[in-house]
Amino acid sequence: MTKTLRQRFADKEFITAPGVFDGISARIADRLGFPALYMTGYGTVASHLGMPDAGLASYTEMVGRVETLTSVTSTPLIADGDTGYGGLLNVQRTVRGYEKAGAAAIQLEDQEFPKKCGHTPGRRVIPMADMVGKVKVAVESRDSADFLIIARTDARTTLGLDEALRRGEAYAEAGADIIFIESPESEAEMEKICASFDVPCLANMVEGGRTPVVSRDRLVEIGYALAIFPATGFLAVGAALNSVYSTLKQEGSSVGVTAPMDNFGDFTRLMGFQEVWDFEKRHAQD
């Protein structure tokens, strides 16, 4: 039986969660045996809409992405729920919808609407008391205690680390299961964050972002319980596609492509065609 995320945290397991953003990335990550996957808002909005993660995707669009990803995976999915898509009633609907769609945890943040992606400039936060209300509603709206509430604050960048820590403490007291202080700017700040809370803390490892990307062992030493790598997958995909498409444009053929490519047959089976073939064989008419 697969452990719940709550059980893993209780057992002091460190969790690395890769960012997934569509059915292909989710299927690939799912087969590798991670303890959790992370539905990245940046990657999901970019993949689904071809637009920036700047509050443009609706609740309906995002909960649909949650349902798509959980339908093709068995690994617990941590899903980005942005600001809850509005006020307290919206938060209630979002939590219930994400849980019903199969997510194992939801991340909610204290940004003003329209939100902006973490590690980007111009992020502004709502009053702390307003976010405390959102966390309380999120906790009371879930059906199962195993559905975890991750409370994120973006206060570090504009208001400083002390304010971010003050908010994190308030969100933990409101019932958040995991605290996510976004965008610390040094390992010393990361250490201070983890030393400030009794609940698990989340590290957001963004290559090229504001926070140092460090090794697994260093994350454990610092005190984090969970690290998400939201951008790693789509940054790799972007580089590979740019390389492959450039070769096609220059040569008019895939002959000469240097980027690694999966075997077509293996990839076809990964995407579920073996089940289609087996179904057709079972139901073939004489």
Automatic annotation (TrEMBL):
UniProt entry keywords in alphabetical sequence: Membrane, Transmembrane, Transmembrane helix
CDD domains to which the protein is assigned, alphabetical: ICL_PEPM
InterPro entries: ICL/PEPM (IPR039556), Pyrv/PenolPyrv_kinase-like_dom (IPR015813), Pyrv_kinase-like_dom_sf (IPR040442)
Domain of life assignment: Bacteria
Transmembrane residue ranges: 222-241
Pfam families: PEP_mutase
Organism: Oceanibaculum pacificum
Name of the protein in its database record: Carboxyvinyl-carboxyphosphonate phosphorylmutase
Molecular functions per Gene Ontology: oxo-acid-lyase activity
Keyword DNA repair attached: no
